[in-house]
Design brief:
The structure is a single chain. The strands form 2 sheets. Strands 1, 2, 5, 8 and 9 form a 5-stranded mixed sheet that branches. The protein is about 10% helix and about 35% strand. The chain has about 140 residues and is mainly beta.
Length: about 140
Amino acid sequence: MRSVTYLVCSRRSIVLPLLLVLASGCGSGKTGTVSGKVLLDGKPVPGGYINFFPSGENSTAKTSPIGEDGSYSVKGVPVGTAKITVQGVAGSVQIPNSNLPKGMEMPVSDRKAVFVPPKYSTTEQSGLSYEIKSGSQDHNVELK
């Protein structure tokens, strides 16, 4: 004789776990995309990085490289106030191959140094912030 087992589920045992799964993906969940230019004394900063540090305990910084024309675009920044930092890029160091050990060659980089005043590299000193809204928005960052 063969036994058959049936699984009997109440509506509550199906609906409750489904609601928990759906709710776990919710939260504020609203983010924005911020695009614009980084300017130093009115001129585009031709490289480096811009960082948005959202307020909130579990928020992660969002970073974007700065293009040669000073442009940037950062996606997925949580809605609310975000502090901003900007870092330049150290230039390449050219070491003549004649100063290196025999058989070793130094790769040549065409990366140019991009200067940004050091105060803009920390959230405590930069004085830069922006109110992120849901969706796409433009924000030029002016450095002096």
